[in-house]
Amino acid sequence: MRKVAILGIGQTKVDEQWDKSLREIGGEAAFLAMQDAGVDKVDALYVGNMLSSMVSGQNQLGTFFSDWIGLWKQEAVKIEAACGSGGAAFRSGLMAVASGEVESALVVGVEKMTDKAGRDVTSALATAADSDYEVEQGVSFVGINALIMRRYMHEFGWKHEDFAPFSINAHANAMHNPYARLHEKVSVDKFERSAMIATPINLLDASPVGDGAAAAIIVPADKVLRQPKIVVAASAAATDTISVHSRKDPLFLNASYLSSRQAYTMAGVTQDDIDVFELHDAFSIMAALSLEATGFAERGQGVRLGLENQIGIQGKIPVCTRGGLKARGHPVGATGMYQIVEVAQQLRHECGTTQVDGATIGMAQNIGGSGATILTHILRREN
Fold first, then answer.
1. Which residue out of 160, 171, 280, 330 is catalytically annotated?
2. What is the mean predicted confidence (pLDDT) over 319-333?
């Protein structure tokens, strides 16, 4: 398999983009990535998206976007893995280039979520859960995560306010990201007084939806002349049961553990070598569980990293350095590609105030469902 590198990146602001269509949002990110890469065509297009058929009434996004961008005749497909669609699309493009099947691939993660009423989007998001044994019983996606969080607090003795540092850190970092949806600082008091959604998850525990797209162009590493070169050091994917209640341990993200261990081995690193980690903080409980499954904290101790200020830019493991899902926003099918773009920005040392000093190795982990599909990518800076 050939070594693959990221040649160009692009992203749009996450927001309620009433004045832009699905094709315009995705196309904007694609054109920005092509401009950054200095190319006007690629051999294949992979689009990560979850909700287009339910929210925008549009499927066949591969051809939909290749037509808009002007990439006629090339392979173009849509990849769906719930909220892990962006990461899954990136892995598909990576495997195509690494195998030698194509010489260049454009990967776009895109989602337009705000054109439908909130209840309709909530119902659409619930399709990532088990329709027979979870959704049919009336539990929403946030409700499933609330049950996990409540059990975690009971099992390990944490209070709700102990999760506040995850939200505080994400919002503080988003203040310096022009592409983030929420530019608003959070305090412990504000976190605790936030409106409740599904006990114990409140508004500041949960990531906001939005419209947005992020993209990257990947090619064989030996074709990249620009410095620094951002190489894809590892790509791994794993799955768990789609329903939480079917798992041996509902408080452990086994797919995160498996995919991160595979990625560490492939990249020849350990968690101690990771300089920056863009984790999937759709809910604050998922941030804690991700830190534990990837080896940065012991079982039940992921919350402690936040309380001890170890997740900030100067901490042991900087996370959500551009705001994460919590403050950058979570346009679900695009999130995995925002994470890839943000890690690439860190390794290119382009993050300004939220730049992690000397970052050379970064990890992105994208979760589909309540831990059912998890993709882990490790990027490395090579001068």
1. 330
2. 98
